[in-house]
Amino acid sequence: MKILITGTAGFIGSHLANKLIARGDEVVGLDSINDYYDQSVKYGRLERAGIAKDDIEYGQLKQSTHHENYQFIQLQLEDKAAIDALFATEKFDAVCNLAAQAGVRYSLQNPQAYINANIVGFMNILEACRHYGVDNLSYASSSSVYGLNESLPFSTSDNVDHPISLYAATKKSNELMAHTYSHLFGIRTTGLRFFTVYGPWGRPDMALFLFTKAALEGREIEVFNNGDMLRDFTYVDDIVEGVTRVIDNPASGRSEWRGAKPDPSTSSAPYKIYNIGNNNPVKLMDFIQAIENALGREIPKKMMPLQAGDVPATYADVADLVEDMDYQPATPVQEGIDKFVAWYRDFFKV
Question: Do the strands 230-231 and 282-283 form a parallel or antiparallel pair, or are they unpaired?
Fold first, then answer.
């Protein structure tokens, strides 16, 4: 297939691009390369795939020096004219939209960035799929959509109308927008609710990166909710395998679906929502212990209250993913953290 992956300077997007390139798909990567976090990590991900920082020009497709089946373009999703021109020229078979303004806490500081990238940008992707003949769209949602829901494990059949951050609200909006385009225009759309993804090349604003950096610099770490947190930490390779299977098996309408008793995770339209999580939540203090094991040192801790926008527990019900895709994430946390720490030491030479 010829596949557009947005967010390929990002964490999940870079891993997905490398996997699809390796199996022989023709991939076009797209990213705005914004400064939300350390751009050296973003450029490092791109360089790993043969896209040199000095060669990048906004709006210009650049050929990878490592892979003949990979090109990259720097674009903002909210740049509608440029997005339309790319779709018109490249004629994609499938789109995986992983580009977004990420982060729960940052949405309290800069809400407009989330509207621009996650609402306007996603609308431009939907419109481009509609007008340029792409009927296979997968996209990143988030476990954050579960908000105030306390029914564990989180199920895609649960109501998710109580978000507690603007980030979560934009992701819920993406799901609603996608359903509309599936219903009206027959675009096959699949939303992926990711649960706390971690691993090599991970985001510098995430706990694993922050804790590892602080520990190697001899600083204490802030442990929120006094450590009383559960997270369904999911290794990035497991996530990417799940995304790949979704791209290969786009959504179809369910003939048994009934509006009298609607399941929000599916539809009579070609629309589906999946959780992708480890289905095995880990206590935050156990996660920190695994980091200490990998580093061979104890990390000083400062206990803090729960932050605004955070939820105390996440836990994914992945029954639909197992049933439909014959797949379930399974990488043990200690193994995943060991691989991250090895990458971190190598990349930052510490």
Answer: antiparallel
Pairing mode, if any, of strands 271-276 and 188-194?
parallel
pTM of the model: 0.95
Closest CA to 331 of 275, 279, 274, 273: 279
The C-alpha atoms of residue 306 and residue 303 are separated, in whole angstroms, by 10
Q: Which of 190, 189, 71 is nearest to 130 (CA)?
A: 189
What is the distance between the alpha carbons of residues 332 and 212, in angstroms, rounded to a whole number?
A: 18
SS3 45: helix
SS3 (DSSP) at 208: helix
Quote the mean pLDDT of the chain: 96
Positions in the chain whose pLDDT score sits under 50:
none
**Do 67 and 25 form a contact (C-beta atoms < 8 A)?**
no
- Estimate to the nearest angstrom the gap between the alpha carbon of 286 and the chain centroid: 24
User: Hey, which residues are catalytic here?
Assistant: 167
